[in-house]
User: What shape does this take?
Amino acid sequence: MNDPGATFMVLSAVFVLCLLALAAFGARRMYLRRALGTVDASICRLGENWRMGVCRYQDTELEWFSLLSLSPRARYRFRRSSLLLQGRRVPSEAERTKVQPDVVIVNLSYEGEDLLLAMKFDAYAGLSSWLEAGPVVGIGTWR
Assistant: This one.
């Protein structure tokens, strides 16, 4: 491997693979953000760190996609009928370095488990409206 041509070929291949990976992440992000009802939102589940991602509203589910993944599937799915909005707050000093600037921390409960979403205030308004607009528990056909 002392040949400069071979070293150049290996470095070129690594560089091209890095560019392809970045392009794939960018294309996936654009694909996710193109769909209606998507917002940037970081998530923190009990005992885990904050992770950046994208939330997408469906008819009966809230889906969360990890930003650092190439998977077309949602990492988490939350049934609309089981999500309870507990409130919102500003990030603590420790959280400010882990979430995007100018976000609110939304406290949710899903089937007895607490989770936090960090999102812009207008995204929070959309989330709360989406949750409130769902059918009343026990009435309707989706439960």
Q: What stands out?
A: DSSP finds three helices and eight strands in the chain.
